[in-house]
Amino acid sequence: MKRDVQAPKQTDVKAPEPPKAEIKEFGKFMKHMVEQMAKRYRNQVFEQLHKSTVEKFADEQVGNFAKVFLKKADAVKRKLLKQFDDDRLEEMAKLYTGKVDRRNKKEFYRRIEKKIGVSKEELEQTEGLTYQINAYKLETFQWIRKMRDDTLQMWTSNTLRQMAEGRSLEDILSDFDGMVEKRKGHAEMVARTQISSFNSIVSKTRARNLGLEKAIWVTSKDERVRKCHQARDGKEFDLAEGLYSSCDGKTLLPGTDFQCRCDYRMLIPGMEEDEAA
Question: Between these two residues, 45 and 54, which has the higher pLDDT value?
Answer without folding.
Answer: 45
